[in-house]
Amino acid sequence: MKHSTLSLFLFLVVFATSITIAFAQDNSAVKGTIVSSEKEPLEYVSIAILQQKDSLYVASAITDVKGNFSIYNLPQDSLIVQINYIGHQVYFKNIVYKNQPIDLQTITLKEDTSMLDGVIITVTAPIQIKNDTITYNAKSFRTNPGDNIQELLKKLPGIELDADGKVLSQGEPVTRIFVDGKEFFGGDPSIVLKNVSADAISKVEVIDKKSDEAELTGIDDGNKEVVINFTLKKTKKNRGFGKMSGGVGLDSRYFSNLNYNQFSPKTQFSVIGKFNNINITGSNIQNFLENADGIDDDSGEDENSAKRTKSLNGFLTTAVTGIHVGHEFKKKESFNADYFFNYSDNDGLSNARRISFSNTNNFDYNSINRNSKTIDKHNLNFNYINKSNKSSSLTIKGTVTIDKTATNINRDESYRTDLGELATTNDQNFNNTFNRSFGNLKINYFKKLKKEGRSFKTGLNTRFISLEKDNEQNTINTRNIGNDNESTRDIFALRNEQFNTSIVDFNFKFTEPIAKYHYFNLESFINKRQVREDISQTREIETTAITQDTLAFKYITKELSSDTRFGYSFNTKKVVLFTALAMQHINWSYGVIDEDLIRRSQLYFNPIGFALYKPKRGIKYRFNYKKSVKIPKPEQSSTVVNDLNPNFIRQGNPSLEPEKLHKLSLVANINNYTSGINFFSKIQYLYATNAIIQRISIDEDFIRTRNYENQGNRKRFQTSLSFSKKVKGLGVRYTLKNKNRYNTSTSIINLQLNDVISKDFQFSGVLENSRKNKIDIKIGADFSINNTSFSIEQDLNRAYTKQQYFGAIDYNFNKRLNVNMQFDYIVFSDDVFVSNQKLPLWNAAISYSFSEGNNSILKLVLIDLLDKDVDIYRNSTTNFFEETTSESLGRYVVLSYTYKLNGRKKEPKKG
């Protein structure tokens, strides 16, 4: 299976390369050269081809350094050539393309003298590039009635939404999203994308934003983030807009959504709400299969295991409401606040199979888990931003979160020897409540001083966390089954845990110019952290007699660290260099209150390096190196044993020393706007010395005890690559991606050192049409390979492969009728678990708009048509690998109706 997977992927690479070479000759549909009135060639001029009948986007190009452009793959139709360049008059030319090349020869753009009079010219080009901003004209890209802006982004060249719903621009993640230049629900991309209608947007701006400090001082520090700003249509401002929808379906499935927005030049007001039992957390009916607060296995058994993605197993009921208010006092001075409430009720059934091993007794583990979880969460965000002063800026941001989680898990466990004999069973029931209060306040102040290049900034970040856990566990443990000494224990335990954490971070930075482009930097960071634990536990054990034990203690962990950095930076338009030596002093103490605390104090010198090279527009190379010190977590160094779960005992090691971490990364980002090539590559390397590893012991009753110690080194090497290109003449774009991960971890199991090496390889290829006005088609494949090897039991080394083939089609019969369909075929194969599984998933939707303005929309959604109600998860850790199969919602059908609020166009006043 592994060889066939690699062969198929290599075939895709060769096929895509062959297509590129085959169409490399000059078979352009429209070409030309653009010059200024002085006959100088103009670079980065935006050329767009539009349909004459509706001005929708067909294709686009950007001129090269010689002013040349070529556009390929045009439909035989009446078209418009539109040429747009800042400071020049827009050029239009009607053409009729009949599958014969059209040479526009040399086009001279005239300067726009109206710009000198301060007249604002409305940007009408479908795509425009200016400095660090790419602007898309939203009306040039067709979306379906009822679509949110998430669907609009999928139509834009260079924008991608990955499988986790994250937005990528030219391969880089988008960190924040604004509406009309202002934060919307804390700038959370998921909320913005699912709650603003696509037809409300005029422009989409993708901005390579500098840091606040760089914007104020004009000195590029290399700290940039990719943000997206959605500009509303004028018809949507100063009047309310939004939509409400509801749907019912088979098996008592239902959903309802509401969002309403009122935006004026100074004030913004938004309300959103939803209630459903169809396993979605967004407000968009198209997001049925996205990750949500699914039920985890709740084991927490191995810190070195891969982080599990929450999945939609079981049945989820969700209720959400939120309100956002923003006000601009004056230009660049604003206040925003939002409140969000989330309720979810999730229950389900899962089956886990685990193969565990040690140097003394290997065994198989099976469990049937019945889970239920309810969450009540309140979240308040606010921020005050004042950048109105040209020489200073002030930002204040705050968050308050209060949530309560109640979990019930019933777990039937069985342990079998490596000969397949049943040895031990557990019938466990967990009833846990978790209450959390969290507060965070950030204050940052930047000041540019009189001397050019001289500046300072200071910031304060405080966090307060209060946790209360009430744990009730009952375990009926039967050991030595089938033997003469078979025994049963009934263990009932109550444990109350209270954690209070306070964190205060203070930072200061002073920049002094040495010479042109050269700067001296002095930075200071002070971190104070304190964690207080109050633990009370009562346990009752019934065998032939009843015994009872109690445990009560108060524990404290304190940390005070200072980090002073002396740095040098070199900043030009193309090159940014920074190097520093950090002097880190750490004091920490921990132990049971009213007893002598264990105290530590150490001094470290840590080098830091950063380089950014931008040889030309669209090309960036970034290098980072940082050495840091990581002290043990409180649970790793704790002097108290946690034996609440009688089958998994946790204890710390108070003698642990800090880890030393070396992090190195190299990023290359190349976007050739002329050829349409997007390339992104990232290499990361982590090397930890004096690594904190797990020490695991497993006794003859399969009881695991975990401890920690410093032992050797730990390594992690990761690479990722993405390459995307249009195929000239075919009207398609292909994207190839590759991710690799090499990870070494170590544990001591029953006094024997176990080295684990995990190798992960992921390959994917996607082919999609580049012109999406009428039809949007996407096909592709994704292959994941995991190889895990263990030094203790080499015959249990494991290879696991996941293959996923997918296809999606979105077709507009006309402006009112739309059909979309998605099919996924997933194959799980494993040389350990014999039961290889195949999972086909088929979803479809049909929507029809009743009104000419697309204000009333009826939609039929069909989910999991093949009724494959299963979710599969596999994982490798330091001494076991596991497969979990969970039930999911299965097949259902929902009929929905959506009505847009104030969606009709405003009638012009009669003069």
UniProtKB/TrEMBL annotation:
<dbReference type="InterPro" id="IPR041700">
    <property type="entry name" value="OMP_b-brl_3"/>
</dbReference>
<keyword id="KW-0732">Signal</keyword>
<protein>
    <recommendedName>
        <fullName>Outer membrane protein beta-barrel domain-containing protein</fullName>
    </recommendedName>
</protein>
<dbReference type="InterPro" id="IPR008969">
    <property type="entry name" value="CarboxyPept-like_regulatory"/>
</dbReference>
<feature type="signal peptide">
    <location>
        <begin position="1"/>
        <end position="24"/>
    </location>
</feature>
<dbReference type="Pfam" id="PF13715">
    <property type="entry name" value="CarbopepD_reg_2"/>
</dbReference>
<feature type="domain" description="Outer membrane protein beta-barrel">
    <location>
        <begin position="447"/>
        <end position="899"/>
    </location>
</feature>
<dbReference type="Pfam" id="PF14905">
    <property type="entry name" value="OMP_b-brl_3"/>
</dbReference>
